[in-house]
Amino acid sequence: MEIVSFDQVSKSYRMGEVDVTALSQVSLLISKGEFAALVGPSGSGKTTALNLIGCLDSPTTGEVVVAGQSVGRLNRRQGAQFRGKKLGFVFQDFNLLPVLTVFENVEYPLLMIRDMPKGDRHPAVEQVLEAVGMTDQARKYPGQLSGGQKQRVAIARALVGNPELVLADEPTANLDSATAQRVMVLMKRMRDTFGTTFVFSTHDPRVMDQAEATFYLEDGRLLDAPPAYGEGRHA
Ligand code: ADP
Ligand code: MG
Q: Which of 109-123, 131-145, 218-232 has the lowest mean pLDDT?
């Protein structure tokens, strides 16, 4: 069963006098539980595609369906609610709050869920910190962590609300290649443990090797086949 579908999706941005086409007629399907990669050079449309899946933007034409919901039809508030319930986000620059501890950073999204008692929050935080191997660092601040550890915390934060789908925009871009590899292996293990679908973007061949489904983008178009190596796939 699919969790994400794009049907002839295009997205353009008005820049002064000109329209910039970020995505052009993209159709694709991502299955529930899949570990899927959006791959392409800078400017190929990866972030635009992730923003559409994340209800942070809506398509100019075509339809994006995420977890059974057509995202173009959601207003701002509905979009925020949908994100809070169904989605987790991981960013290339980690986006941790420097004044909060590791534990508090991971707890933070749960504070946004109304009526969740502390008695439920704490075990949820402990479970995901344990899963990413950061229990021992729970009282530290982000500034005391390495890049790889920060990304582990960010992955825990993305998972703590038990989302159906985690979106990760170039999650390893600021990590050395050995650390990047370990972060990808961890994300895949989280998929195995929690059954969460992961969609990530990258242009690093070693990172894309981990993917089960790879979508190659170039100038906003989905390629039928990879430009040089691997297996492409589209709907
Ligand atoms: P990638 O993430 O693969 O680097 P993006 O999705 O960020 O690619 O960008 C795709 C294209 O759309 C680029 O040409 C970019 O300049 C343009 N673009 C993206 N976002 C905007 C925006 N908010 N306003 C104008 N142009 C944009
Ligand atoms: Mg990008």
A: 218-232
Q: What is the pLDDT of residue 235?
A: 47
Confirm or reject: Cβ of 47 under 6 Å from ligand 1.
Answer: yes
Q: Which atom of ligand 1 is nearest to the CA of 21?
A: 12
Query: For ligand 1, is residue 178 a contact (CB within 6 Å)?
Result: no
| CB 27 within 8 Å of CB 7 | yes
134 vs 75, 80, 140, 180, CA distance in Å? Answer: 37, 28, 10, 17
Mean pLDDT computed over 177-205: 94
How far does residue 54's CA lie from ligand 2's centre (Å)?
A: 14
Q: Which architecture does CATH list for 32-59+75-223? A: 3-Layer(aba) Sandwich (3.40)
Structure tokens belonging to residue 103:
């534990």
> How do residues 82-115 score in pLDDT, each as one tens digit?
999 999 999 999 999 999 999 999 999 999 876 7
pTM for this structure?
0.93
Cβ of 46 less than 6 Å from ligand 1: yes
Protein residue whose Cα sits closest to atom 15 of ligand 1: 43
Q: Which of 153, 216, 138, 163 is nearest to 186 (CA)?
A: 153
Contact 71, 52 (CB under 8 A): yes
Q: Indicate the pairing of strand 2-15 with strand 18-31.
A: antiparallel
Cβ–Cβ under 8 Å, residues 60 and 11: yes
Question: Using a 6 Å cutoff on CB, does residue 13 contact ligand 1?
Answer: yes
